[in-house]
Please model this.
Amino acid sequence: KRHLVSAADLSRDDALLILDTAEELAQLSGRAVKKLPTLRGRTVVNLFFEDSTRTKTSFEVAEKRLSADVINFSAKGSSVSKGESLKDTALTLQAMGADAVVIRHHASGAPARLADSDWLHGSVINAGDGTHEHPTQALLDAFTMRRHLNPGAGRDLAGRKVAIVGDILHSRVARSNVHLLTTLGAEVTFVAPPTLLPIGIETWPCQVSYDLDAVLPKVDAVMMLRVQRERMNAAFFPTEREYSRRYGLNGLRLATMPEHAIVMHPGPMVRGMEITADVADSPRCTVVEQVANGVSVRMAVLYLLLGGAVFADGSADSART
Ligand code: CP
Model:
């Protein structure tokens, strides 16, 4: 069985293979090859216990472009609301012949539990678990950085400086990114108020700063994060005005960044809080591009996990592992 549960499990070669494959698949889409037969006859289940706009939609588009049979399952409206367990849900999906399960769950560790179980025989792909990891988000972020910061050159991100700003404490995106970016040679700085940093941050492979203005002039990319009210006790929620004054990205701060540096955001954005509308809409902000790149990256992950080969002429086989 092959799974993608954590960006920390990816070696440099694994990550580069996924990014290079995603680039080839993106080129095929650019040449109007909209659909490949690679996963014809394979069933992929999108098992979402938490809300999603981008991840769920882009996995579905990726699966359909690879000709998979797609089953969309969301906890709302399912027997999960009647108390059915993850195990019984998984056994039910296995009985329907799932070759892969893409899972988003509010509990950190749920995808690892599925991957380690014998409830499912297919591949498990983590689409975001609690505050733990979101590996395909980190891959699409690295793909986006590589396109902007290494055009036509290096395959990795060696020496690139990336600041990740905001609610690190609750962010699975920050966790996956710090693993993947450091594997690819980038230098990561977390910028956040002390209350939004996890205990033990000093053991992570990154720098920490409380001063956004000091960090911005040195970055190649800045990644703004949403403050996740839904995972926070209201008593700890920072006031919007104070937060955006110290940690929000506005036009004045954008002007202090190097000209080549890009502004990223995994979405959903809260305009006026972590990012102002003029910055979100500026040509230097890659948020929409990140969504488009997510389709190519998720196609690559599905293709590599479920098997199949794409040939130089754009045709593909449907070999099974
Ligand atoms: N970036 C991200 O995971 O967005 P969604 O929650 O909309 O999937």
User: Anything to note?
Assistant: Confidence is low (pLDDT under 50) at residues 309-321.
